[in-house]
């Protein structure tokens, strides 16, 4: 196992004493197979116990350790030090307020996620005795990729629209709404459309595509949003040009 | 929890200079100005046509000027970039599930290029090129 001296430049912010954030540099002797999160853990354990950041699983499942690494939204547990040269700049996820150091305030995302009702609203209620809600493999595949979202919010940090227009519901929440809309067992589309087919929903998206490029789980939020736009447009035409189809 | 969370400013202008992917996006968006400019030329052509033979022939002569040639060449380059950049993202907006699997994106993109070719050939045929 080889080792390398790594220079980390970490954005620090103490809400009790600082008026604005500043960078602090740490020089850390790192193992070659370490990720950025390992280096931060090493800093916290041996150099500076005041450094704050979120993390949990260390295996790209929990979605807690999203940070800007050299300006790019990344899970710090998936960002290998060997892929970086020179000073590694670590900042909290862009577009979110900084709570402390690398910890962001994520209330806005959580509220938006709640608004889109990201859970199954059964088309028809069945009693437990009536058995499971069955689904074919094709019906499962229709939405499966969106179930891989881990709510890490990297897509929000990558999305310039969200940065410029914070009321935008954003990529992950709309993709999760789309996930349930695409589910053959679900009947909640109309309720979700109130949120996602609105101006603050998909129509704020101008298809930059950055969300899909940074997603660590290879979900395609940009695709989901365009599909919602198309379906909502068809809804509009049906409502206005084919009134006999309205319920 | 005490103290106030810090909100970072997002620059209103020039934000797209921060990332190559934002610049690619802006390049795609800017091309629409050239498409718009060419639409104006087409509208002027229609107007001249409505004004009569003499006006239309004068318009055709103006099209043959070096300035017009350069303009058309520039618009063509931007129109090609505009078209291809949008065609290439169609599989995201219009995925097609055939049976269990989704059709490969290349088929959806390819179908757009094929339709483009067919429409172009049909237009050239109508214009009497063949």
Can you tell me about this structure?
Chain A has a five-stranded mixed β-sheet. With 247 residues, chain A is α+β, with helices and mostly antiparallel strands. Helices cover 34% and strands 15% of the residues of chain A. Chain B has 130 residues and is mainly α. Chain B is built from five helices and two strands, in the order H-H-H-H-E-E-H. Chain B has helices at residues 20-51, 53-63, 66-87, 90-93, 105-126, and strands at residues 97-98, 101-102. In chain B, strand 1 (97-98) and strand 2 (101-102) form a beta hairpin. The longest helix of chain B is centred in the first third of the chain and has 32 residues, at 20-51. In chain B, 5% of the residues are buried. The mean pLDDT of chain B is 95. The chains are: A alpha+beta (247), B mainly alpha (130). Chain A binds chain B through residues 13-16, 18, 20-21, 71, 94-95, 97-100, 105, 137-138, 141-142, 160, 163-164, 206-210, 212-213, 220, 222-223, 226-227, 229-230, and chain B through 1-8, 10, 12, 15-16, 18-19, 21-22, 25, 29, 89, 91-95, 97, 99-102.
Defining traits:
heterodimer, A: 247 residues, alpha+beta, Ubiquitin-like (UB roll), two-stranded antiparallel sheet, 15% strand, elongated, B: mainly alpha, 3 helical TM bundles of succinate and fumarate reductases, two-stranded antiparallel ribbon, 5 helices, 2 strands
Quick rundown:
By secondary structure, chain A is of the alpha+beta class. Chain A is 34% helix and 15% strand.
User: Which range does the strand content of chain B fall in?
Assistant: under 5%
Q: What is the gyration radius of chain A calculated from CA atoms? A: 21 Å
Order of helices and strands of chain B: HHHHEEH
CATH superfamily of the largest domain in chain B: Fumarate reductase/succinate dehydrogenase, transmembrane subunit
CATH class of the largest domain in chain B: Mainly Alpha
The helix count of chain A comes to 10
Classify the fold: give the CATH topology of the largest domain in chain A: Fumarate Reductase Iron-sulfur Protein, Chain B, domain 2
Q: Give me the count of strands of chain A.
A: 7
- Rg for CA atoms of chain B: 22 Å
At the third CATH level, what is the topology name of the largest domain in chain B? 3 helical TM bundles of succinate and fumarate reductases
Number of domains of chain A: 2
CATH superfamily of the largest domain in chain A: Alpha-helical ferredoxin
Mean pLDDT of chain B: 95
CATH architecture of the largest domain in chain B: Up-down Bundle
Number of domain units of chain B: 2
Protein structure class of chain A: alpha+beta
